[in-house]
């Protein structure tokens, strides 16, 4: 049976349980408060003590699961509109001064773990300089939304004069995800410039490396649009966990040692530079900030993810595998994350077989007999 958010509010809270059957990766990224998270198969095989209300991305899978329960004579519901309806309901409850609470939380409650680490990255890697115009790229998720608020605070209180633009590139979002982004930005008082493209439609039928091609195309469009706005830098929302995961991924799957740099020059846009101001900020702290402010963001907007989740398949990415590996290693060594991060700061070229530069490959045998 179908149930709406409004109907759920009218029911007594102790008469049902919310069961989140979205893909595990998506559920962890955008958790639903007080929900039980499990796979579609686990949900079907579970005898719930309370009447379950199944929630998926858009209602399709949840409707199928609730129908199976009804066929067995069990009472069950699926949430009309899925996760999106929860997000829009949460946003509707925010008052006009909500953004002030969010800003205070960054400067006060989350000062040590978010604001201080943000400013540390800016200073240590010289990410923002006088006269810069920074294009803050907003994808609609928790990381980029936090980065936008951090740049607003910096712009309002720094002694270093610089300009900032908040850019949303729409690669072909669903109308629901587009609405969530726009409403979140409105509630958070983030003035955005939206740039529309048809990237998703162009790559959805590509069989080989569609994610890589999509990322390259999105980056190119961002450069071009940011340049039109007068930007000389693009800020991306990659955080500390992204950095250490990239290090391990490059070693285990790429056969090389490299990391996600805190800044780098564009190869195709000569005056443009990428910066990563969340470089020292932990993902768990970003999640805590979002939960504290009762913030909900878009789900993964990729059409490939839509296909997987609509069919009920669990799409485990290589990055997700690395996340699990790091968690397992952390149980043995609690300092493993910091050690991975430091490993690319403490490379001793005297103890590696070979290394690459723009000039080519340098092998240890090249000058071995000269020492």
List the helices and strands and how they pair.
Blueprint: E1 2-3, H1 5-10, E2 16-20, H2 24-29, E3 36-37, H3 40-44, E4 51-55, H4 60-71, E5 77-79, H5 82-92, H6 98-107, H7 111-124, E6 133-137, H8 142-157, E7 163-170, H9 175-187, E8 192-196, H10 199-203, H11 210-228, E9 233-235, H12 240-252, E10 263-265, E11 273-275, H13 283-292, H14 303-311, H15 318-332, H16 336-343, E12 354-357, E13 360-363
Parallel strand pairs: 1-5, 2-3, 2-4, 4-5, 6-7, 6-9, 7-8, 9-11
Antiparallel strand pairs: 10-11, 12-13
Let me know the largest β-sheet.
6 strands, mixed
Mean pLDDT: 89
Give the N-to-C terminal Cα separation.
78 Å
Looking at CATH, the homologous superfamily of the largest domain is HUPs
Uncertain parts: 306-316
| CATH architecture heading of the largest domain | 3-Layer(aba) Sandwich
Number of strands: 13
CATH domain class name of the largest domain: Alpha Beta
Overall tally of structural domains: 2
What does this protein look like?
The protein is built from 16 helices and 13 strands. 30% of the residues are buried. The chain has a 6-stranded mixed sheet, with helices on both faces. It has a 5-stranded parallel sheet with strand order 1-5-4-2-3. It has helices at residues 5-10, 24-29, 40-44, 60-71, 82-92, 98-107, 111-124, 142-157, 175-187, 199-203, 210-228, 240-252, 283-292, 303-311, 318-332, 336-343, and strands spanning 2-3, 16-20, 36-37, 51-55, 77-79, 133-137, 163-170, 192-196, 233-235, 263-265, 273-275, 354-357, 360-363. Helix 9 (175-187) links the parallel strand 7 (163-170) and strand 8. By secondary structure, it is an alpha/beta fold. It has 2 domains: 2-91, Rhodanese-like domain (Oxidized Rhodanese, domain 1), CATH 3.40.250.10; 94-301, HUPs (Rossmann fold, 3-Layer(aba) Sandwich), CATH 3.40.50. The protein is globular and about 80 Å long.
């Amino acid at each position: 049976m179908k149930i709406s958010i409004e109907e759920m509010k009218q029911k007594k809270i102790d008469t049902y349980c919310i069961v989140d059957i979205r893909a595990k990766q998506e559920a962890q990224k955008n958790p639903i408060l007080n929900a039980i998270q499990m796979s579609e198969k686990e949900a079907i095989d579970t005898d719930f003590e309370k009447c379950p209300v199944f929630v998926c991305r858009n209602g399709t899978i949840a409707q199928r699961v609730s129908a199976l329960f009804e066929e067995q004579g069990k009472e069950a519901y699926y949430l009309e509109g899925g996760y999106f309806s929860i997000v829009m309901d949460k946003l509707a409850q925010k008052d006009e001064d909500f953004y002030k609470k969010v800003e205070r939380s960054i400067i006060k409650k989350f000062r040590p773990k978010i604001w201080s680490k943000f400013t540390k990255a800016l200073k240590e890697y010289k990410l923002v300089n006088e006269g810069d115009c920074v294009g803050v790229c907003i994808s609609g998720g928790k990381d980029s939304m936090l980065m936008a608020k951090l740049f607003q605070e910096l712009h309002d209180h720094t002694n270093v004069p610089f300009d900032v633009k908040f850019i949303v590139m729409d690669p072909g979002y669903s109308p629901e995800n587009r609405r969530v982004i726009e409403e979140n930005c409105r509630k958070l008082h983030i003035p955005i410039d939206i740039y529309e493209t048809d990237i998703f439609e162009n790559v959805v039928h590509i069989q080989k490396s569609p994610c890589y091609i999509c990322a390259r195309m999105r980056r190119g469009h961002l450069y071009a649009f940011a340049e039109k706005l007068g930007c000389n830098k693009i800020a991306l929302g990659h955080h500390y966990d992204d950095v250490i995961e990239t290090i391990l991924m490059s070693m285990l799957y790429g056969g090389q040692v490299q990391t996600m740099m805190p800044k780098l020059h564009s190869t195709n846009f000569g005056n443009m530079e990428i910066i990563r101001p969340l470089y020292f900020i932990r993902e768990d702290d970003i999640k805590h900030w979002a939960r504290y402010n009762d913030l909900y963001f878009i789900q993964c907007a990729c059409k490939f993810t839509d296909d997987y989740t609509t069919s009920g398949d669990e799409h485990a990415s290589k990055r997700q595998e690395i996340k699990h590996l790091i968690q397992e290693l952390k149980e043995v060594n609690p300092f493993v994350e910091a050690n991975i991060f430091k490993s690319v700061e403490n490379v001793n070229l005297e103890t590696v077989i070979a290394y690459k530069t723009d000039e080519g490959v340098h092998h240890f045998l090249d000058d071995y007999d000269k020492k």
